[in-house]
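Help needed: design a sequence for this.
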């Protein structure tokens, strides 16, 4: 309903002031990727800070390429978009971004709350020629790993990607339909010995799209693809909570969502990053080249980097904000639920032994074996992915499709129940 109101407001504003965009902010974000109450609160806050009114027109996309196409080919005048790391890299290379304004007058610069670990990573996105931090601000981040059901899957097995080839789990495996995530994660794992010997750079593995490396990964995927019940973009976490699947090549944010949902119905799920290595990923806010209100866009980014708003977003969507600092650390610490981890890479040296959720904040030792995805070899990787998936449909796949359709109504109900639970969680946190 709220989204419909935003679209209605957009239509009215476009009709009434098609040539004046100084009071409209067009935001293009992933679906279900913000606490939508923050949108209206930003409008009030912006007027308080600047004396100017603004109406946010909020639209969503489901894949990076849809967003990029609208901007690069359609020249859409979005003021803000939230692409993933390798797309930020591509947009920088193709001159599709405007610099973020950091002069907020009397308003504090909350963008400075972004963890140094994230800004260091973003520095590498633009290569030697440009600092991506001038054009992008981290929003959410996480890892790629294995969501699993310990009732059916031996926890020792998920310490290696070889678990995907274990015949005991055939037909109960789901894999993200994300060719770059799968390719880079596996290639990091295959290269770990050379990385440890200093022969390869962990953070540059994603640039390796040689014929030999693509063939190596393709052969490995083919070795387990007959046991894959489905290649999924979003339904995997729901299938895991219902115990229709036991093992999911997943993103940490989806994994945390599934773990929380499963716990509410008495199902135990867990998440692991193989010891042989994987990937970290990042989504960030950028101001596209054809934006018409970069001022309000910069203020919106600044607003979301306020610690209290970052915490609200984490509570609401289940992903991990790039914002660090003492306030976030205190809010996320939970000695009653978690064992200490070394999160000094994110929160600073004082956080070398803090009780955080390891799905959301992996130990430094885990992060040190995770590489980055890069905008490289897209066409060749897509061809490989198509070859692998082209003949992979099986009886398991068709059964799973039927189960997915049967579960749609339940999923919608669960979605609204989840939002209600997250609001209660946030309310409880504010009372502390």
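Sure. Designed sequence:
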């Amino acid at each position: 309903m709220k989204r419909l109101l935003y679209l209605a407001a957009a239509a009215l504003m476009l009709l009434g002031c098609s040539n004046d965009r100084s009071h409209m902010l067009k935001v293009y974000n992933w679906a279900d990727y913000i606490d939508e109450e923050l949108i209206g609160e930003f409008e009030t806050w912006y007027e308080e800070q600047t004396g100017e009114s603004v109406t946010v027109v909020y639209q969503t996309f489901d894949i990076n390429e849809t967003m990029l196409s609208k901007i690069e080919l359609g020249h859409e005048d979005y003021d803000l978009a939230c692409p993933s790391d390798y797309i930020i890299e591509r947009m920088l290379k193709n001159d599709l971004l405007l610099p973020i304004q950091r002069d907020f007058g009397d308003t504090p610069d909350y963008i400075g709350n972004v963890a140094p670990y994230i800004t260091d990573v973003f520095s590498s996105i633009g290569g030697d020629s440009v600092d991506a931090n001038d054009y992008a601000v981290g929003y959410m981040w996480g890892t790629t790993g294995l969501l699993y059901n310990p009732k059916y899957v031996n926890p020792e097995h998920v310490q290696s990607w070889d678990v995907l080839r274990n015949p005991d789990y055939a037909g109960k495996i789901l894999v993200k339909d994300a060719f770059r995530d799968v390719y880079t994660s596996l290639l990091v794992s295959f290269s770990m010995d050379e990385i440890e010997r200093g022969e390869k750079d962990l953070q540059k593995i994603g640039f390796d799209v040689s014929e030999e490396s693509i063939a190596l990964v393709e052969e490995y995927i083919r070795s387990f693809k007959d046991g894959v019940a489905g290649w999924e973009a979003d339904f995997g976490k729901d299938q895991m909570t219902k115990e229709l699947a036991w093992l999911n090549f997943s993103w940490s944010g989806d994994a945390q969502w599934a773990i929380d949902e499963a716990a509410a119905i008495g199902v135990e799920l867990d998440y692991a990053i193989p010891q042989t290595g994987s990937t970290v990923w990042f989504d960030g806010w950028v101001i596209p080249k054809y934006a018409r209100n970069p001022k309000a866009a910069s203020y919106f980014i600044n607003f979301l980097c306020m610690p209290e708003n970052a915490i609200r977003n984490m509570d609401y969507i289940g992903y991990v904000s790039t914002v660090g600092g003492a306030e976030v650390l205190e809010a996320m610490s939970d000695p009653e639920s978690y064992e200490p981890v070394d999160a000094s890479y994110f929160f600073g040296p004082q956080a070398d032994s803090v009780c955080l959720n390891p799905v959301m904040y992996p130990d430094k030792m885990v992060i040190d074996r995770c590489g980055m995805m890069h905008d490289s070899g897209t066409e060749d990787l897509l061809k490989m992915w198509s070859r692998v998936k082209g003949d992979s449909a099986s009886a398991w796949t068709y059964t799973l499709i039927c189960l997915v359709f049967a579960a749609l109504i339940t999923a919608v109900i669960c979605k609204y129940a989840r939002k209600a639970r997250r609001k209660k969680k946030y309310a409880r946190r504010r009372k502390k």
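Residues 408-431 form the longest helix (24 residues).
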